[in-house]
Amino acid sequence: QVQLVESGGGLVQAGGSLRLSCAASRSIFSINAMGWYRQAPGKQRELVATISSGGSANYVDSVKGRFTISRDNAKNTVYLQMNSLKPEDTAVYYCNAHQVLALLGYDYWGQGTQVTVSS
Q1: Residue 65: left if φ>0, alpha if ψ -120 to 50, beta else—which one?
Q2: DSSP 87-102
Q3: pLDDT tens-digit profile of 54-93?
Q4: How far apart are CA 65 and CA 81, in angstroms?
């Protein structure tokens, strides 16, 4: 098991930046993938970005070139740097840890942090 705690959300004007952090309760070195998801009011939760244990990152098209995901294994923390924010980025952002053990996948979630982008 791993507990995840997000921080760094808030209110920002369009064009601004925020950096989200996700602190894990234990080492993330062996976790197969860490990711950020978001859920806007009335919409389904969507994948924003993931980063593998080897450092490979993937992004949803709508954030490519604006968001950067990174992980610091020494600090058991994953970050999401968000630049050039748009009102449509407004959502609750959730941290996810995905671990595969004995061919079974396990997902762990944080409580979420609100990001609001004003126009």
Answers
A1: left
A2: GGG-EEEEEEEEEEET
A3: 999 999 999 999 999 999 999 999 999 999 999 999 999 9
A4: 11
13-28 mean pLDDT: 96
| Residues forming a β-bridge with 5 | 23
Helix, strand, coil % in the chain, rounded to nearest 5: 10, 55, 35
| Burial track 13-29 (b if 16+ CB lie within 10 A, e otherwise) | eeeeebebbbbbeeebe
Torsion of CA 84, 20, 67, 16, to 10 degrees: 0
- In single-letter form, the type of residue at position 57 comes to A
What is the pLDDT at residue 28?
87
Would you give the DSSP letter of residue 43? S
Contact at 8 Å (CB) between 64 and 79? Answer: no
Predicted local distance difference test score (pLDDT) of residue 29: 85
